[in-house]
Amino acid sequence: MQPSKRLLKVYFCAMFEPTVFLTILIGLFSLINPLSALPIYIGLTQDYTEENKLRTLKKACVYILIICLVSYYLGVYLLNFFGITIPALRVAGGLIIFRSGWQLLNLKHKKEIRGNLNDSGEKKEDISFSPLAMPLLAGPGSMSFLITLFSNRSDSVSEAFWQDVSAVTAIIIVAVIIYFVFKFAPRLMKYTGQAGLTSLSKVMGFIVIGIGVQMIISSVTMVVKTIYADLQPF
Fold first, then answer.
1. How far apart are CA 177 and CA 154, in angstroms?
2. How many structural domains does the chain have?
3. What is the pTM of this model?
4. Best exposed site among 13, 44, 140, 233 by fewest CB in 10 Å?
C-alpha cells in the first residue's frame, strides 16, 4: 500500500466514528418510524394505481430528504433569528421527542392525526408532501433531533465535517429504507400483521423516550453549570 493511501486510511479511521453514525441512524429512524405509518399509507393510496403509488412514494422520499437536510443545516440559524437559545431548543426538542416516544408506547403515535390525513387524502390528489412527508413521517420530533444534533457540532473543522458526513449519510439511508418499506407495504402487513408492527413501535418508543430524556438532562445540566459559573466570585 502506498504511503499516501495508508495515511488517508488512517485519517479516515481516526476521524469517522461508527458509534456516532449508528446513534444518528437509529435515532432518526426511530423518530420517523415508517412502520407505524404503514396502515395510514395503505389507506391513503388504496385507490391508486401501482404507477401512481411509486410516483407518490418517490416524491415523498425526496421531500423527506429535503426537510431533514434543511432542518439539520438551517434550523439553528432560523431559531437564532427568532432569538431562541440552544438550551431552550434542547429542552423543547427533548419534550417533543419524549412525547413522540410516549405516544408510541401508548399506541397513539400517528393516530391523533389519522382523521385529518384521511380527509386530506380524499381532497388532494398529491399527498406526497402533505400529509405523507410532513407531518406523518418527517415531523417535529425528527426535525428537533436534527436541529439539536447540528447545534452540538464540535468546533473542530475535521470533527464537524465527519459529523456532517454521518448525519447526511444517515438521512439518505433512512429515506431509502422508507422507500422500500412503503414499496413492499402490503407484503410487510401480510407477514407481520398489525400486532407485529405494534410491537416494533413499542420498542422504538423506548429508544425515542431515552433520546428525549437525555436531551433534557444535557440541557438542564448545561444551564446549571452556566448559572453556577456565573455565581462564582472572580
1. 29
2. 1
3. 0.74
4. 233
